[in-house]
Design brief:
Layout: E1 2-10, H1 13-32, E2 35-40, H2 45-51, H3 57-65, E3 68-73, H4 88-98, E4 103-109, H5 122-125, E5 129-135, E6 143-151, E7 154-160, H6 165-180, E8 185-190, H7 196-210, E9 216-221, H8 222-231, E10 238-241, H9 243-257, E11 266-268, E12 274-276, H10 295-307, H11 312-327, H12 341-353
The protein binds nicotinamide-adenine-dinucleotide, 3-isopropylmalic acid (IPM) and magnesium ion.
Nicotinamide-adenine-dinucleotide (NAD) is lined by residues 13, 17, 73-76, 89, 92, 260-261, 277, 280-286, 292-293, 296, 334.
Organism: Sorangium cellulosum (strain So ce56)
Family: Belongs to the isocitrate and isopropylmalate dehydrogenases family. LeuB type 1 subfamily.
GO molecular function: 3-isopropylmalate dehydrogenase activity; magnesium ion binding; NAD binding
Length: 354
């Protein structure tokens, strides 16, 4: 098949991991006789430097016209001035909102050979297989009012945590549909003991659950959920939660896998369009050194093949190649190894061919 893929490398290690993933997608295409064409566009800090804005209309239009989008990461110290009026992260948020990508799927799967890479005891990691469905276009990230002001000589700032029933319903519904082909348990995570928006979340989640009697629902407060992710992660199947809780819980859950650099995601709306992005950021501490682990982005590309291009077999072959490379001892520095970003990509491609 022919597919038109937009690449948004962004900033920092985003550039490195996307380059390695493109080479890997090319290897998949060659193996199966597909033709993927790429167009690269600016987002984040590099877009601010070139155009003054973090997401240009040109980039957004290209993403709208593409079959799928693969994104690296945005941000970095260069653009971190707290009084700057434009920030790299705004580009990513505008992209998610502009494409209507209200659900971010973040699978947390463990490679048996990497159990030692996690700081947790091996017995706590047995049978861990979690899918976090993070709401992506609502909550604190987008609520209005949002402002900073000075009142009577005091500085004051406001963010707003706002959800409508429709925003909650569509993402929880998706979580239930996904749970149907897994272990049939949805954990809906909120802070309903304190937040009004969480009480609405819990009410709507309960209504959605009533339409899916074959799937169990449990409600869990976010603070104790954070603890249970460490003490009994294997008890979770699908977790569905609001935007910021999902952001924080998934970086925590990445510790189960052994490195943030291993974890992929798919940002989806209605239809097949999606943005595929590792859950990590631009990692300024290691950027430009060839140290970044590209696996999170390569596994995001596998999700791209499956969800946006409907190439299930190719996705499975790519995931198997990653698993075999890791089983064969391929390790970047975050996993205690010596391979460069490129070396890790090559290790995966070697398993593809074999
Ligand atoms: N989706 C995104 O674009 C995204 C996500 C998170 C953070 N950010 C941005 O990234 C910048 C840095 O944020 P941060 O330091 O809090 O988070 P980060 O995810 O960039 O890095 C956290 C730690 O994990 C390590 N790490 C991350 N990815 C890795 C990889 N692939 N291989 C090996 N090690 C890896 C880093 O070296 C660092 O020590 C900020 O500007 C932030 O806004 C962007
Ligand atoms: C960079 C930032 C806007 C982003 C988020 O919070 O969504 C990141 O942390 C992520 O997890 O993709
Ligand atoms: Mg994050």
């Amino acid at each position: 098949m022919k597919a038109n893929i937009v690449l948004l490398p962004g900033d920092g290690i985003g550039v490195e991991v996307v380059a390695e993933t493109r080479a890997t997608l090319d290897a998949v295409a060659a193996q199966f006789g597909h033709s993927f064409s790429y167009s690269e566009h600016l987002i984040g800090g590099c877009a601010i430097d070139a155009t003054g804005t973090a997401l240009t209309q040109e980039t957004l239009d290209a993403c709208r016209a593409a079959d799928a989008v693969l994104l690296g990461a945005v941000g970095g110290p260069k653009w971190d001035n707290p009084s700057a009026s434009v920030r790299p992260e705004q580009g990513l948020l505008a992209l998610r909102q502009g494409l209507g990508l209200y659900a971010n799927l973040r699978p947390i799967r463990l490679f048996p050979e990497l159990i030692q890479a996690s700081p947790l005891k091996a017995e706590r990691l047995a049978d861990v297989d979690i899918l976090v469905v993070r709401e992506l276009t609502g909550g604190l990230y987008f609520g209005k009012p949002r402002l900073r002001e000075e009142v009577n000589g005091r500085r004051r700032a406001v963010d707003t945590l706002e959800y409508t029933d429709e925003e909650i319903q569509r993402v929880v519904e998706l979580a239930f549909r996904l749970a149907a082909s897994r272990r049939r348990l949805v954990t809906s995570v909120d802070k309903a003991n304190v937040l009004e928006s969480s009480r609405l979340w819990r009410t709507v989640a309960t209504e959605v659950a009533a339409r899916h009697p074959e799937i169990r629902i449990e409600h869990q407060l976010v603070d104790s959920c954070a603890m249970r992710l460490i003490t009994s992660a294997a008890a979770f199947d699908v977790i569905v939660t609001e935007n910021m809780f999902g952001d924080i819980l998934t970086d925590e859950a990445a510790v189960l896998a052994g490195s943030l650099g291993l974890c992929p995601s798919a940002s989806l709306g209605d239809g097949t369009r999606g943005v595929y992005e590792p859950i990590h950021g631009s990692a300024p501490d290691i950027a430009g050194k060839g140290l970044a682990n590209p696996i999170g982005t390569i596994l995001s590309a596998a999700m791209l093949l499956r969800h946006s291009l409907r190439l299930d077999k190719e996705a499975a072959v790519l995931e198997r190649a990653v698993a075999q490379a890791i089983a064969g001892g391929a390790r970047t520095a975050d996993l205690g190894g010596k391979l460069s970003t490129q070396g890790m990509g090559e290790a995966v491609r070697a398993k593809l061919a074999g």
